[in-house]
Specification:
Layout (H helix, E strand, L loop, with lengths): L8 H34 L9 E2 L5 E2 L2 E5 L15 H5 L8 E6 L1 H4 L8 H16 L3 E6 L38 H12 L1 H18 L5 E5 L13 H19 L5 E3 L21 E3 L2 E2 L2 H4 L6 H21 L4 E2 L1 E2 L8 H14 L3 E4 L23 H4 L3 E5 L1 E9 L2 E8 L6 E4 L8 E4 L2 E2 L8 E4 L8 E7 L2
Parallel strand pairs: 3-4, 3-12, 4-5, 5-6, 6-7, 7-8, 9-11, 10-12
Antiparallel strand pairs: 1-2, 2-13, 13-16, 14-15, 15-20, 16-19, 17-18, 17-20
Helix pairs in contact: 6-7, 9-10
């Protein structure tokens, strides 16, 4: 049967035009947030970065490692690293360790702190001090607790409402288990548990705050939202505000490091509304979600990495804090893993970010590890060990390694201390010039020590080449 006409042709045309304009208006409304997001992605961060500074007014940059994944299941929650293993880091130019500690180890039973565990941590912090290494304490957790194949939270804090846990084939897939989600949801909903956590952090930091090589305290590794849909802007930002209030009551000297939620490690934007009131450091992580699961590194991963790193630099500027990437890594079995690391470290140089790679482990304990089971360096160390300025006696630095060249320029300030640059000893036929004249690193430390020339405000330039 022939359908009845919708008015005459004129009315049909008018009705279509109205419908078209309505649809067009809806399309515009839907597209505006997307376009705004794309514009934000295309905008470059401001040129001025916020930096760590030492007592001599020098910019401080950190390259280092996490110590260590193996501690999660080790006796006493302490890894295999000896004093000699920390001293070995000097030859790699690493000047920082993100040292993992666990609530379960600190407070195994409610209200009782294990001072022997804290003493063991302090002993290792002092070993690192003797080796010239600064330390960021990381209150580590993954998957809430060992009950769920994870680590971090003590068993007495688990409130899973009796939901059964079914272990999945890959460790990170356990985040989708209802028992894990419920435990996190209940933690964030419980003021009593959050207060217990803050009291534990306070107790630990009181023990270590006066140690001279403490560079900061990361108050929670990769916070997971549970079922909180507005997690970062709500519970997590409020939690950081409570921690910051505790920090200020105690007048802690160590900076408070804070992270976005766990999903941000794969590239999602942060919705944190927490605004630091000084003495804080933004500490994101980065794991490409495809490469993490074994896919090779290609053009799309590189584009995603560039956009993501740019956004994190903007975040740090919005927070008015220095930025230290607490974790990043890739398995040596992933195709293109060396190019992945080289590209990522070049981006961190561009944004003048400090970093600690995950992790100083053996291959059998962590596929991202930097040594094999016999303790020999893996191929990723050929990328991680690189030229970089550890201290810069000036402002507005620019530095870049491209191929077999490295350049650093900055405007001298009135610091009386030298600029310090690490130069890997494996570089062959090295030539170095500072403001046009030849310089060379100390053969015992592999460090270039450069005194500013011409007074404050004068540009200083370093150029290195090797074969």
């Amino acid at each position: 049967m022939k359908s009845a006409p919708w008015g005459d042709g004129q009315e049909t045309g008018k009705g279509w035009r109205v419908t078209k304009y309505v649809l067009l208006g809806l399309l515009v409304l839907i597209s505006l947030p997307v376009v705004a997001g794309l514009i934000r992605l295309c905008q470059s961060p401001a040129t001025d970065a916020y930096h760590f500074r030492d007592g001599d007014k020098r910019i401080v940059l950190y390259h280092g490692v996490n110590v260590a994944n193996c501690a999660k299941g080790a006796p006493g929650f302490v890894g295999w690293h000896t004093k000699a293993d920390f001293e070995r880091m000097r030859q790699w130019g690493f000047n920082c360790v993100r040292y993992l500690v666990f609530w379960e180890a600190i407070e195994p039973t409610e209200g009782t702190y294990d001072e022997a565990y804290i003493d063991a941590a302090i002993e290792r912090i002092r070993w690192m001090q003797e080796a010239g290494i600064d330390v960021v304490i990381d209150f580590h957790q993954d998957l809430y607790s060992r009950r769920f194949t994870g680590n971090g939270f003590p068993d007495w804090t688990v409130h899973d409402d009796g939901i059964p846990f079914h272990q999945r084939s890959r460790w990170n897939y356990n985040y989708f288990e209802r028992a894990v989600i419920r435990s996190y949801t209940n933690f964030w909903a419980s003021k009593a548990l959050r207060d217990e956590y803050i009291a534990m952090v306070e107790h630990f930091v009181r023990r270590i705050d006066a140690l001279p090589n403490i560079a900061g305290v990361d108050v929670m590794n990769e916070p997971f939202p549970g079922m909180n849909l507005r997690f970062e802007s709500g519970p997590l930002s409020a939690f950081y505000g409570d921690l910051q209030a505790m920090w200020r009551r105690n007048l802690f000297a160590a900076p408070m490091f804070f992270e976005p939620m766990m999903y941000n490690s794969g590239g999602l934007p942060t919705g944190l509304t927490f605004m630091p009131a000084g003495n804080c450091v933004f500490s994101p992580h980065y794991y490409d979600p495809l490469c993490h699961e074994g896919s090779g590194y290609g053009w799309f991963n590189k584009l995603w990495m560039r956009l993501w790193a740019r956004e994190r630099a903007k975040d740090a500027q919005r927070f008015h804090t220095p930025m230290l990437y607490g974790e990043f890594g890739i398995a040596s079995t992933t195709q293109g893993h060396l190019a992945y690391l080289a590209d990522f470290l070049d981006l961190l140089d561009r944004y003048q970010a400090s970093w600690t790679y995950y992790s100083y482990d053996k291959s059998g304990q962590e596929s991202f590890g930097i040594v094999d089971n016999e303790g020999n360096e893996k191929d990723n160390m050929g990328v991680l060990v690189r030229v970089y300025p550890q201290r810069i006696a000036g402002d507005k630095p620019v530095f870049r390694q491209e191929g077999k060249h490295f350049d650093l320029s900055y405007k001298a300030n009135d610091s009386k201390a030298p600029t310090i640059v690490f130069v890997p000893p494996r570089l062959k036929a090295l030539t170095a010039t500072f403001n046009g004249h030849a310089v060379s690193p100390d053969p015992k430390t592999d460090l270039l020590s450069l005194d500013n020339e011409g007074g404050a405000g004068v540009m200083q330039k370093l150029h290195l080449e090797w074969q």
